[in-house]
Amino acid sequence: MGILKGRSGFMGRLRTSIQELQGIGETTTRAGLTTLERLTRTPVETRASSVHMVPSSRLQHTLGVHTKSEVSARFPFTGTTTGVAALFFSREHAVQLAELLLGSKKGSISRLGELEQSTIAETANIALNGCLNALSRQDGVRFDPGVPECVRGVKDLDAFLKPPGAEAHVAVVETVFLEPSRGIEGTMLLVLGVEE
Amino acid sequence: MGKKGPVNIDPLSFPGNLLKTPDVGHCMARVLIVDDAAFMRRVLRDIIEDAGHEVVNEAATGEEGLELYRSLKPDLVTLDLVMPGEGGKAALKAILDHDPQARVIVVSAVGQKDDMEAALKAGASDFLIKPFEKEAVVKTMQRLLAAVDTRG
Q: The whole model's pTM is what?
């Protein structure tokens, strides 16, 4: 399937059908959590999941809760549509995730140093590319992801999550997950620009 | 399996620099890791060293990876695709332009069909999608080293 055909079909689905938009949400959520499970080698549960479409200017309002997240990791992507993929954690849970992935005992890491931040950023890279890979397989669309970065605190969520394009509307897939063995909770977010 | 101590190797004697390790029963390879994530470099180093191979160095960018490839002449390279700067696709091309015999395993979270086909068409020896199983890395390395052994 050519890019243009894929773009037209995919963007049409994003625009026109809430049910199919939910399908995109389910595909990406399932793929993201499965990838996270393979990475952490522990079960990961979904606590809450939602898909909505909002004006990009209202992202801050819609997702304002994440401004309280102390640690996040994100990368932009271009391709069939532009967008941003991100993970959000409290500082405590980011530290616990780093401990889990680095094979450290619980409570052994006290600060988010370079290695720990790299671990969080790479978790976002792997889990969220798992979402995009699944969407690519399902719809024959393509994404070119950017370099992931770990950020401490997110004051300006609009700027943090604004897709690298000028789309007026965005589709937002939001999943709160829990890794029960250590009680690590985080939020996975996919923001997809929607063509007018 | 214990980790190996330092071994004196002539870096210019490829492929004769593949040393037989009697207790492991396969060739010990000199491996260069190219990935911008310190976490992933550590994971790969642990896997590679546990399998009895030597990590000759690590690079965080494609440009640095090319420099190190030129100076160290490793037997194998693990190469991430999405990195700051020119990135892994350009590094793959540059390494293969410099040494058409280079063995490069692309290790990336980007597992879209187009990217995998493009990397293999460009000359990558294999493509592993993150997250990977330790066994997949080891088996892929062994297969490529066996091919080098046969050729050498």
A: 0.86
